[in-house]
Amino acid sequence: MIFTVAIDGPAAAGKGTIGRAVAERFGFAHLDTGLLYRAVGAKVAEGADPVAACALTPGDLARGDLRSAEAGQAASRVAAVPEVRAALLDFQRRFARREGGAVLDGRDIGTVICPEAEVKLYVTASAEVRAGRRWQELGGEAAPLPYATVLAEVVERDARDMGRADAPLRPAVDALILDTSALSIDEAVARAVAAVRARRG
Ligand code: CDP
Ligand code: CDP
């Protein structure tokens, strides 16, 4: 059984949370494609050649520093390089069409990686809500950086991801738009699960 759930959207919209829950519910494999770009960005920040850096090892993907805002910015910069996107394409495509079902979350899954995906979700929320969630993840009042800095980072990264020439972030024409600004995680997951059920019959 080949079945792909493509989840795209801006930073901290809830893509990964929803993707993991949907994958678990249906027994599908899950790929956080942002982690690939974060790992490449981290290697390039250390001086690696961008294309050579795309040969990723399990160790590259297991680095502890990939979730930081700096790694997000480094990812977003290398993600605008067409040769990097091309080098990461095949792995993602094969993952999407693997036997047994797959959920991928990122920026271009429904538009470029797997336009034939059976279900496409564009998960979004206001920049303020998204930055607030990321700030809470960092500890809220105890976070090492103020909310305003997190908001600025999110806005800058979204603008770069939406403005690049190659595979810009945008909803696929046939994507279901899921605005999670006023939804709990459970409500957002329930809507995503319903979309998959509707398509699977
Ligand atoms: O993968 P992405 O960057 O889009 O977002 P995430 O890491 O799944 O979610 C970012 C944060 O928002 C996490 O702390 C989630 O628990 C939270 N979240 C939420 O509060 N409400 C939702 N409906 C979805 C996510
Ligand atoms: O978790 P969050 O939404 O903050 O970011 P991420 O999904 O880990 O992605 C980090 C960066 O990688 C994004 O800002 C994009 O520039 C890039 N990316 C991409 O270009 N295409 C993808 N399919 C996934 C991520």
From TrEMBL:
Annotated keywords: ATP-binding, Cytoplasm, Kinase, Nucleotide-binding, Transferase
GO MF term list: ATP binding; dCMP kinase activity
Catalytic activity: dCMP + ATP = dCDP + ADP; CMP + ATP = CDP + ADP
Subcellular localization(s) per the UniProt record: Cytoplasm
Pfam families referenced in this protein's UniProt entry, alphabetically: Cytidylate_kin
GO biological process, one term: pyrimidine nucleotide metabolic process
Known EC number: 2.7.4.25
Transmembrane segments: none
Gene Ontology, cellular component aspect: cytoplasm
InterPro entries according to UniProt: Cytidylate_kin, Cytidylate_kinase_dom, P-loop_NTPase
Binding locations of ATP: 9-17
Superkingdom of the organism of origin: Bacteria
All copies of domain Cytidylate kinase, residue ranges: 5-42, 63-196
Enzyme superclass (EC): transferase
Family named by the database record: Belongs to the cytidylate kinase family. Type 1 subfamily.
Protein name: Cytidylate kinase
